[in-house]
């Protein structure tokens, strides 16, 4: 039976209907990836006949997506902050809610003068690259304990002409020594160890070290909050992404550590997602 572009999209939408929040979109992205064409091309050429080899490749991707493998892992790319990022199983796929962290950080990074920024747990480099492209005068450092992740981050930075980002291997603040920063951002692991993944089956395919952080999901956030004051310039800001039900605990941790102006901000879905605080008075 001859497969047309439109029939393959309908097949994909049906197959992913029970396993994806956006079956049509996923089917379009996967088929576009196989054919190396845009989604606009898919809409404009519904009757194009697809060779059997490409149809088979598409069917294989649908099967992997059906069991929860992230689309970004299947295509090797994920859009974040309107920029394309290469992703692999070594890095957490950038998610839309993390753009809220970038938006908040940009408020504190000036457009007309240098500013020292630190991204903790850089992963794919999405946060670092987004900040560097929006604020080209800022000096961005980024740490990650995974050498493989740093390799992907460096590739993404180079692809966006952000080769000046200083990527450093090591856990949290360890690689930066005594350096101080005006703004520190982090999307650290914040899922409780052993927490069921039924609400997001894609998590089973993400690197565990980027997800899980102790019995309540806050072990790494506690470490970051504890050590951040000695790495912030007077009046510097710490901004943390976290789970939708963790804002109250993180607010308490920040205030106990001496942070002021502690506030939580919602993501585009209306969920509490980013909590920030200032340490010390600005000079």
Offer a concise description of the structure.
With 283 residues, the protein is of the alpha/beta class.
| Major sheet attributes | 7 strands, mixed
Q: Tell me the series of helices and strands, N- to C-terminal.
A: HHHHHEEHEHEHEEHEHEE
List low-pLDDT spans.
none
Going by CATH, the architecture of the largest domain would be 3-Layer(aba) Sandwich
Judged by helices, strands and strand pairing, the structural class is alpha/beta
Kindly report the CATH topology of the largest domain. Answer: Rossmann fold
Q: What spatial form do the alpha-carbon principal axes imply?
A: elongated
What's the gyration radius in Å?
A: 21 Å
Number of strands: 9
Number of spatially distinct domains: 2
Q: What's the end-to-end separation, in Å?
A: 73 Å
Describe the structure.
With 283 residues, the protein is of the alpha/beta class. It folds into two domains: 5-67, Helicase, Ruva Protein, domain 3; 81-279, Vaccinia Virus protein VP39 (Rossmann fold, 3-Layer(aba) Sandwich), CATH 3.40.50.150. It has ten helices and nine strands. It has helices at 5-16, 23-35, 39-44, 52-66, 71-75, 99-107, 126-134, 147-159, 219-227, 247-256; strands at residues 77-80, 83-86, 116-120, 139-144, 166-169, 181-186, 232-241, 260-266, 272-279. A seven-stranded mixed β-sheet has the order 5-4-3-6-7-9-8, sandwiched between helices. Helix 1 crosses helix 2, helix 1 (5-16) packs parallel to helix 4 and helix 6 (99-107) packs parallel to helix 7. The longest helix has 15 residues, at 52-66. The chain is elongated and about 70 Å long.
């Amino acid at each position: 039976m001859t497969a047309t572009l439109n029939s393959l999209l309908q097949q994909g939408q049906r197959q992913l209907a029970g396993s994806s929040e956006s079956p049509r979109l996923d089917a379009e992205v996967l088929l576009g990836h196989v054919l190396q064409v845009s989604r606009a091309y898919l809409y404009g050429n519904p009757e194009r006949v697809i060779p059997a080899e490409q149809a088979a490749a598409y069917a294989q991707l649908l099967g992997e997506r059906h069991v929860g493998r992230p689309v970004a892992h299947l295509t090797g790319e994920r859009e974040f902050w309107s920029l394309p990022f290469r992703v692999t199983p070594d890095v957490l796929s950038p998610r839309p809610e993390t753009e809220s962290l970038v938006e908040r950080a940009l408020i504190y990074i000036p457009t007309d003068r240098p500013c020292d920024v630190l991204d903790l747990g850089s992963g794919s480099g999405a946060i670092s690259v987004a900040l560097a492209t929006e604020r080209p005068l800022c000096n961005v450092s980024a740490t990650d304990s995974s050498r493989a992740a740093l390799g992907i981050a460096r590739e993404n930075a180079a692809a966006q002409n952000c080769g000046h980002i200083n990527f450093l291997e090591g856990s949290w603040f360890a690689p930066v020594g005594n350096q101080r920063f005006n703004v520190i951002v982090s999307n650290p692991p914040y899922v409780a160890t052993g927490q069921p993944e039924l609400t997001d089956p894609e998590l089973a395919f993400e690197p565990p070290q980027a997800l899980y952080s102790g019995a309540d999901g806050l072990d790494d956030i506690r470490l970051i909050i504890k050590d951040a004051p000695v790495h912030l310039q007077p009046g510097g800001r710490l901004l943390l992404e976290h789970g939708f039900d963790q804002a109250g605990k993180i607010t308490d941790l920040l205030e106990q550590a001496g942070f002021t102006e502690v506030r939580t901000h919602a993501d585009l879905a209306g969920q509490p997602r980013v909590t920030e605080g200032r340490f010390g008075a600005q000079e």
